[in-house]
Amino acid sequence: MSLAIVHSRAKIGIQAPAVTIEVHLANGMPSLTLVGMPETAVRESKDRVRSALQNAQLEFPSLKRITINLAPADLPKEGGRFDLAIALGLLAASGQIPGDCLNECECLGELALSGELRPVQGVLPAALACRALNRTLLLPRANAAEAALVRGVRIVAAEHLLELCEHLRGERELPGVNVESRPQSRPVSADLADVQGQAQAKRALIVAAAGGHNLLLFGPPGTGKTLLASRLPGILPALSEAEALEVAAIQSVCGQADLSCWPQRPFRAPHHGASAAALVGGGSQPRPGEISQAHQGVLFLDELPEFDRKVLEMLREPLESGCIHIARAREQLSFPARFQLIAAMNPCPCGYQGDPSGRCRCSPEQIERYRGKLSGPLLDRIDLHLGMLNETFSLGHEQVGKPSSAEAAQWVAQARSCQQQRQNCLNAHLDLAALREHCRLSEADQQWLELAITRLGLSRRASHRALKVARTLADLDGVSSIERAHLAEALQYRQLDRRPMA
């Protein structure tokens, strides 16, 4: 057979579009031509494949005119992920393996010069696409555990090209990968009970977790802002299988798949020097940024005003839509970014405004300029603003243990279950129509809320956010209707909206 067709998958963002590798052997001047918009690493694959075949004691058809086409031709192709498919295509076209054995298979893997199979990135999206077509996935053994997270996909994994060829010829049977052998234990997170005092901040953290709300903590250094933020993953419910696969797919294309964290929600804490591309994604070959890697999890931004303002403003769209769109001259990509933002900042440039010691000497103008680094539209999208103060130092246990992460997680789970049953989404994700339906108030409470909003000078968006928080407070209390106490507490979490700031 002089023509062989092998199926593979490219990596475009978090998608895995199909690529067909066509290998044709013809008589004529010996040559090897690779077409189909290959990038540099793909063009170099012909040299890796030649050495791999020769070192594996397989025949490379060097006396033939070889044409390898990667279709579709207008789809960019990069990396060494097509090495295995090209090698198998050459072997099938030259009759060294049966060509029909590749009809219901897809191949991914990079070849070493010795013929060993090396792992590649983006295997999980390819496994999902392969399962949808009911095909068998051939890949390096190092990628097998990651691909096995997808239930129902048939996987054949090998460590060497020769092993795979013997399997395809029927000379030996490679053991299948157990797709049920996924990690089941949830990693232990730091306990909320370790945080002394700060009862109001703990309350705000539980409210944020229960409704999926964004939270901004501000206060002097050492008040426990970062400590509290690190406890949030421990009170959030575990990911569902569909959500966990979505998160793992993003980690897979970033080369950061960590099976030990399955199915824990991601917690990302980028440094304040992060660029726009690092935070929201991008590059010449667009990759997911920190907000996408925090999808279905937590994005913690410490020292919020120290981030470049232009970088922070790029968070406004994904905070609303739950995704980020990246446009390039030849392609447009969308990455999921449904994250929960937890931010921390000092109340003033020196950090000690409101500290009982009275050591802050910042003027109102300096404080205004410092907080002015955060725009009003960005603050509007953060549901809860809470100020924290230093509390009396104690080594005793009288302030420890209430509540624990286990207790808080139970409250959060009950509140989220109520929201899913009522509206099939978290309160933070309610649109305007759903907000009117599920956050109805009595006439007296409506008038009271309108008067309070006017006095506080809240925008319409901030008012809607406060109403969503009130709905979450009612869910935590286990009541069906929003009461005035819930509204009052929700408005207390808009502290940065108040003036004057000094």
From TrEMBL:
Gene3D superfamilies: 3.30.230.10, P-loop containing nucleotide triphosphate hydrolases. InterPro entries: AAA+_ATPase (IPR003593), CHLI-like (IPR045006), MCM_dom (IPR001208), Mg_chelat-rel (IPR004482), Mg_chelat-rel_C (IPR025158), Mg_chelatse_chII-like_cat_dom (IPR000523), P-loop_NTPase (IPR027417), Ribosomal_Su5_D2-typ_SF (IPR020568). Keywords: ATP-binding, Hydrolase, Nucleotide-binding, Protease. GO terms for molecular function: ATP binding; DNA binding; peptidase activity. SUPFAM superfamilies: P-loop containing nucleoside triphosphate hydrolases, Ribosomal protein S5 domain 2-like. The keyword Lipid metabolism does not apply. Pfam families: ChlI, Mg_chelatase, Mg_chelatase_C. The keyword DNA damage does not apply. One of its GO terms (biological process) is proteolysis. Residues 211-392 form the AAA+ ATPase domain. Belongs to the Mg-chelatase subunits D/I family. ComM subfamily. This is ATP-dependent protease.
